[in-house]
Design a protein that fits this description.
The complex is a heterodimer of chains A (154) and B (264). Chain A is an alpha+beta fold and 154 residues long. Chain A contains 4 helices and 8 strands, in the order E-E-H-H-E-E-E-E-E-E-H-H. Chain A is globular, with a radius of gyration of 15 Å. The chains are: A alpha+beta (154), B mainly alpha (264). At the A-B interface, helix 1 and helix 4 of A face helix 9 of B.
Amino acid sequence: MNQQTNPKAVTDKRMFSRETTVSVNIQADPSIVWALLTHASDIPRWNSTVVSLKGEIKEGGTIELKSTLDEKRTFKLKVKEFVPGKRLVWGDNMGSRVYTLDKNEGGVLVAMSEKIGGPLFPLFANMIPSFDKSFEQFAADLKKEAETIQGSKK
Amino acid sequence: MATDKLTPEFETFQGELKSFILRMTASVQDAEDIVQETYIKAHAKLNTFRGESSLKTWVFSIASNLARDLLRAKKRWPENVTDICREEALGNPQFFQEAMQIRETSPQGNFEIKEHIAFCFTCVSKSLPLEQQLALLLKEVYGFSMKEIASILNQTEAMVKYYLHTSRSRMIEVFDQRCSLINKQGICHQCTELNGIFNPKQKAQEELVKIEMAKDAENKSKEELFDLRMKILQELDPFESGAAELQLHHLEHNRQVMEKYLGE
């Protein structure tokens, strides 16, 4: 059984940027994890940090995301990188969210990070909520769903 | 395999194949065309069949590819397809005239609630992504194993697991929200409503106790109720049942409404 049951997010705060990272070891086939991360219409079903997600997660695709961090706001994001089974990056001018998958023995190590920043970042840094809890919840949800599917007989 | 053995083996599962394609396409014409084309392709490529799977699995894979080719360019239906089609039917007196004519004159013109449950699933499952709908039908209705489905869809077993888990979860959620037979708050009563129209002297409640899914709705989990819904589909041949002509008329109506609604 995987011992990393409670993924812990880490945030690195700088003057002009902030980066939050979480990683989780998942005992499932990487293709299941990749499918969960990229089938946009299905994401709100298993990811409790996402309120809604419209659009298509594919090379050059655009998505509209509403997250529990701020349910009133819709983030319009572009898929910047799409390397099937390995790496996914989406974001806007403010920053990027990067997902990486590394196959290991018995499963896959998934890391998610988001870096936001810019010259004006210090002016509004305090207005942006911490991502830590949301990232940890995402990682726990992804692990639970992927391992459930891996173990499913139906 | 010798060519002369193809036809008798094909005939043993031809009915299942045709109903499978009907449930994918919602079109009698497409189902008949694809079954015919599948046979022709199987005949032409029989020398490539190595017996690594059963002939049935191999043939279903040819048919699934033909269905995918047809459906890939088409839009998926919305989850509330039956609401949209109901509104259109209510504004179309010709639809009910034709249906009543079938009801009164056809030996396959009965209206049965369980038949409508299967019809309803055909419509609603077309809201799933194509690969998910294929996997779900192959597993839950036609009884193929994960390995066989992986072979039919040319996918890994892991992806088949993903498709099945996701499609089941989605359908369970949709029917829990919509179907008044399993949830008193369900917003769709179309099967009992139509039963009142086509069988005015029959009490819907007396019919519902004959249907395990409806009778045991309060005592079963959502998963178990979905399995009972699938059991209804497993036991029905949409081309051969006593309600076939009436339900196929209704299905054709819905297909045409959806094509118009989706701008196809």
